[in-house]
Amino acid sequence: MTLAIAVHLVEHDPLWGERAQSLMAMLAPLNPPLLRLYHVGSTAIPGILAKPVIDIVGVASSMAALDAAADDVRALGLGWHGEFGVDGRRFCTLDAPAAAGADAPRERIANFHFYATGSRHIKLQVAFRDYLRAHGDVAAAYADEKRRIRALHPDDSVAYSAEKGPFIRAVLDKALAWHSDDPL
Hints:
The structure is a single chain. This protein is α+β, with helices and mostly antiparallel strands and 184 residues long. It has one domain (16-178): Beta Polymerase, domain 2 (2-Layer Sandwich), CATH 3.30.460.10. The chain has helices at residues 16-26, 63-68, 70-75, 120-134, 136-152, 157-163, 165-178, and strands spanning 34-40, 54-60, 79-80, 89-95, 108-116. The protein has a five-stranded mixed β-sheet, sandwiched between helices. Helix 4 packs across helix 5 and helix 4 (120-134) crosses helix 7.
């Protein structure tokens, strides 16, 4: 089963922050094991081109506790996809309800990346977000890179995400050096 969807990029929508807050509120029944939530990804960076899919990082007390709550996660309407290529992550998705009788793929609303407290992946995603928020020139370069990659992989969001890797890794080195050492 592939989770690839067409790559649809749009200009920044100021309502994305409110949508992220609503999605995080939807997860309230999962506290615990979820302890903290962060709106990350391009929809969390004002002014940047993005897929209109909200990314949320959730910090869990432990992976065992989160795995034990998998049925509760599914009861909220989220698809549970396990690690999905990232060690120590539980990847979940939320898609819009299918129209009655429609055979078309459902529209993705949000991606949820759940990690155990202390996971380095939490800081990576928050540092990247914060660095781009503070460095408009880097955010603009990232938007240009996203346009280039969409032209290469217009119908494969998984390949699109993989192709962004080198740019993201180069920025992450700077972002981690720049970001505060405060624990997340």
